[in-house]
Design goal:
- With about 240 residues, the protein is mainly alpha-helical.
- The chain folds into three domains: about 35 residues; about 90 residues, Cytochrome Bc1 Complex, Chain D, domain 2; about 90 residues, Immunoglobulin-like.
- About 50% of the residues lie in helices and about 5% in strands.
- The protein contains ten helices and four strands, in the order ααββαααααββααα.
- The protein has a two-stranded antiparallel sheet. Strands 3-4 form a two-stranded antiparallel sheet.
- β1 and β2 form a beta hairpin.
- α3 runs antiparallel to α5, α6 packs across α7 and α8 packs across α10.
- Bound molecules: heme C (HEC) (2 copies).
Length: about 240
């Protein structure tokens, strides 16, 4: 072996040894944090029952959770934060009506009320695991897929988030639902910060408000919607 080759060999050995030490150190550090990252203290009996339902109904056959499962249907790691408890129960108990207009088919797995509650508790627990923003599309600052499409087509993030979360009940310029008031001139009444707060807690602005609290709308979306609506003064802009 020439001197050069021998040096290269020792550099390789040294490098491999150092990398191994770093790798083992990081692995040990991660394991040390598991209890806190998964908030193991909140692992109630209901959460455990929900996990058993998840397994017995084979939800993994179509869905992915924490990286395990099939990508036929939406990733459910953060579904609790994405759509909330009532929508989860509706999806699980009556998929044929919840997804009536969709080309993909979620089967009715004859989930009982008790099982639906347990599954929801399990999915809530999973959604609170700190897995460093994985999957990335459900990062709290990220936009939803449909918001990304709408902003790609030229809408502002606020307008896209308004369309996605509010228009089934509110209208602007005559377009939208009628169960809440039209918001054409709402900018004359409230500023962006007040609207952002109202979305999370309508009662804080108007005690006794009939609007449901939309706690699942992310902070960034609430702010963007607030800025968008604060500009609605009934003028041409
Ligand atoms: C045979 C495949 C299949 C199985 C098994 C299945 N699902 Fe689904 N699920 C789907 C599909 C497909 C969708 C998306 C429907 C759509 O958007 O049209 C869906 C949607 C959902 C949604 C709404 C997701 C979202 O982001 O809006 C939830 C919640 C859900 N499923 C929960 C479950 C649970 C819990 C189980 C087990 C009890 C389960 N699913 C079993 C196919 C399946
Ligand atoms: C399920 C229907 C529903 C949804 C979804 C909804 N709202 Fe409302 N909203 C209402 C109703 C009903 C009221 C009237 C509340 C009252 O005064 O009793 C209201 C009131 C308001 C008001 C006060 C209007 C005023 O003149 O005082 C604002 C602002 C508002 N909503 C913004 C939003 C925004 C922004 C979103 C989406 C993030 C949203 N709403 C989603 C039903 C809804």
């Amino acid at each position: 072996m020439s001197l050069i080759n021998r040096n290269a060999f020792f550099i390789f050995l040294g490098g491999a040894a150092i990398s191994l030490v770093i790798f083992l150190g990081l692995t040990w550090d991660t394991h040390r944090q598991f209890g806190a990252l998964t908030h193991a203290d909140k692992l109630s009996e209901q959460v455990v029952s929900g996990k058993h339902v998840w397994e017995s109904k084979n939800c993994n056959e179509c869905h992915t959770i924490l990286g395990f499962g099939i990508y036929y249907a939406p990733d459910l790691t953060r579904v609790y934060k994405r759509i909330g408890p009532d929508s989860i129960k509706a999806a699980v108990k009556t998929p044929e009506t919840t997804f009536a207009t969709s080309f993909r088919k979620m089967p009715n797995l004859k989930v009982t009320d008790q099982e639906a509650n347990d599954l929801t508790a399990f999915l809530e627990w999973v959604s609170n695991i700190d897995n460093h923003d994985w999957p990335p599309q459900d990062n709290a600052e990220a936009m939803s897929a449909s918001e990304r499409r709408l902003t790609g087509a030229g809408l502002s993030r606020g307008a896209a988030a308004f369309k996605e979360n509010c228009m089934q009940c509110h209208s602007i310029g005559g377009t939208g639902g009628g169960s809440g008031p039209a918001l054409d001139t709402v900018g004359n009444k409230y500023n962006a910060a007040i609207i952002a707060g109202l979305i999370k807690d309508p009662g804080s602005v108007n005690a006794g408000s009939r609007m449901p609290a939309l706690s699942y709308v992310s902070d960034d979306d609430r702010q963007a919607i607030g800025e968008f609506l604060a500009k609605q003064g009934g003028g041409q802009s």
